[in-house]
Every structure is written in structure tokens, then in C-alpha cells.
Amino acid sequence: MITRCKIHWESLLLLAAAAALMLAGCHSGASDAAERNQPVIPQIIHQSGGPEMMQFQPQMVPGSRFVDVRQVALSGVLETSGQVTFDDRRVSTIVSRVQGRIEDTRVSLWDNVRRGEKILSLYSPDFMTAEAELLQARTTAKLSGAPEMAGGVNLADSLVSAARRKLELLGMDDADINAIKEPSPVIWMRAPISGTVVDNKAVRGAAVNPGDVLYSLGTLQDVWITGDIYEDELSRVAVGQQLEAVTTAYPDQVFHGTIARISPAVDPNTHTLQIRCEVQNPGFKLKPQMLARIKIVTRPGQALVVPQDALIFDTNSYYAFVDAGDNRIERRKVVIASWSEKGLARVISGLRSGDRVVTGRTIQVDSLWHQALGESS
């Protein structure tokens, strides 16, 4: 009986030992498999005075591959978006030239006015003083035979001219100066141009000082549309070039104009520059701040394009992984623009025709890049 029990316990111990060995073997096999599946972190190559590079081959990230950056033809029509603004050569402001008070106003914001129309009456003792000086000079000229000055100029006439000039500098119109019969501290200020009141700061009873802007007037007979073009399109446009503009407010009406100005400066962030187009505005339909689509007929050009999935957006910029040769890639900042063909992006800077970029699994390649940077730091 004792012998039988002893054999039984020995069998159990042997089975437990075998199970432990099998379990240990399974753990060892799983660890080996995990090590085999763990991706190898490539090396980052730091260059003195040059860009950082990473050792890379497409088989390191299955599904990735290299494609060429290429040039494609642009059409003979250059399109861009723009915004309608006043032609600042046709904008005029009415400024107070004296210290005083606004007595009355006749126009409000967005009213249309004619040149010479009375729009605001202004009280100031400076007007009364200057008018009294003019009346006194006129009286002196009539009653006394004033001697001539050097050059044959009559002294009395000179005093009258000086008094008139003073009133003109205070903002009085010639017709109002001629109509002066007695001194008055109130004068009417008149519209210097025909147009629309686009800014109104005049309030009845308000005090004013020299230099205060009371009104701004603008005309909509011709307007400007300011738009952006990319720097590689600059050679395709010129001052005087004909264009067409269409707005969302009047999608069936085409407005015609010409390029009047081209900005001398390029925005370093977007690599764009502005063009200013002088556009005819029949019926005053185009209003400031309206958006418009501009079409300029020009010669065909070339654009650099890259697949959209070759780009990675990080923080506030796009990046592409460029083949640098010798199984190395460079992470390079790229400036892009919108492109009408699906799946492609237009490159403004950062890449050249013939460059080879990684596409297919760019997100995984970017993750590998950051892991490699972390390993190298």
C-alpha cells in the first residue's frame, strides 16, 4: 500500500515538472516572437550645417513608396479671389480746421451727396474773426487809394487776397466767401466730391478740434478689387491686362476691368503678392468688402504638384519626406496651395521638379521619424 502511494506521488511530481517546462517554453517563444515583431528604430544622421536625415527604405514601412514631384501645365486663364474696395483716389474726407461746435447736419451714413452740397454747419469764433478781416479789407480797398507795392501790386488788394486765403484755409467755399455781407460764427461745410457717405463721425452739438475727421465720402463709379497671386504666377500678369470679375451677389453678371497695380512685395509666409484691379461698376452694384472671383486671360504656365498623401501637417506647416540618396530621407517643410485636380496639392516652395517623396504610409513614416529623434537625443 505504501509503495503504491509513493509511485502515485512521484507521477504527480513528474507531471508538474513537465507542465512547468512547457509553460516556460511558451513564454520564451512568445518573448522571441515579440522581439522579432518589434520594429527596428532607424538611425538619425545629424549633419553639421545641414538638415537631419533618417536611414530609410520603403520596405521598412510596408505600403510606402517613392514618387516623383512633377510639373503640370496651367491653363491660359489665371483665377484668384479678391475683395472689392473703394478706389482711394476717389475718396475724400471732410476735416474740421477750427475749434468749435457742430450746429447742424444734413446727411447721414450711406447718403448720396453732390459736389458743393451743404452737409454740415459749424460754429466757431474763428470764422467771425476771419470774415470781419475780409470785410474790413474790402472797405479799405474801396475807400482809400492805397499805394502800389513793389511789383505793381496794390496794398489794399493784397490785404483782400490774404483775408480770402485765410477763409479758404478755414474750409470756406469760394461762393460762400463772395456772399459774405456781415461776420457770422457759423458756416456751412460742403461736399468736396459727389459720392456716398461711407463714414460719419459728425454728431449735432458735438465739440470739434482742428484735425477731427467729420465725414468720409467715396464714389463707386469705378472700384478696386484686390486679389492674391502666387509668386510663380508673377511673370504671367502685367499692368493693363484685361480681366473679368464675378460676385456671388450677381453670379450672372460679368464686371470688366484691368490690372492697375502689382504689389512690389511678396508675403514670405504664403509666397503671394497682391494685384489691384480697376473695375467698372455700372449701377454701383459692387460694394466695398464684397468677395469676387477674378479671371485673367494670360499665357499658359507650369505648376509643381505632389500627391496629397505625401504631406504631413505638423503644428502649422506641411512637411514631406524627400529621398536624399544612400537610403536616407530628409523631412522638409513645404508650402502648398489649393489645386483643382483631386488627390494633388500644388507646391509653392520646399520641393523641386524631380524630387522623390515618400507616399502611401506617410503618417507611419512620420511616427518612425519622431521615434528615431527620441532615440538619438
What's the structural blueprint in terms of helices and strands?
Elements: H1 2-37, E1 44-45, E2 53-55, E3 65-68, E4 70-73, E5 77-86, E6 91-95, E7 100-105, E8 112-113, E9 118-123, H2 125-143, H3 155-169, H4 174-178, E10 186-190, E11 195-200, E12 207-208, E13 213-218, E14 222-230, E15 242-247, E16 255-262, E17 272-280, E18 291-297, E19 302-307, E20 312-314, E21 317-325, E22 328-337, E23 344-349, E24 356-359, H5 362-376
Antiparallel strand pairs: 1-2, 2-22, 3-24, 4-19, 5-14, 5-18, 6-13, 7-9, 7-12, 8-11, 9-10, 11-13, 14-17, 15-16, 15-18, 16-17, 19-23, 20-21, 21-22, 22-23
Task: Give your account of this protein's structure.
This protein has five helices and 24 strands. Strand 21 and strand 22 form a beta hairpin. The model is unreliable at 1-7 and 26-37 (pLDDT under 50). The longest helix has 36 residues, at 2-37. The strands form five sheets. Strands 1, 2, 4, 19, 20, 21, 22 and 23 form an eight-stranded antiparallel sheet that branches. It has three domains: 44-73 and 303-376, conserved putative lor/sdh protein from methanococcus maripaludis s2 fold; 77-87 and 220-300, Elongation Factor Tu (Ef-tu), domain 3, CATH 2.40.30; 92-218, RNA polymerase II/Efflux pump adaptor protein, barrel-sandwich hybrid domain (OB fold (Dihydrolipoamide Acetyltransferase, E2P), Beta Barrel). Helix 2 packs antiparallel against helix 3 (155-169). The chain is an alpha+beta fold and 377 residues long.
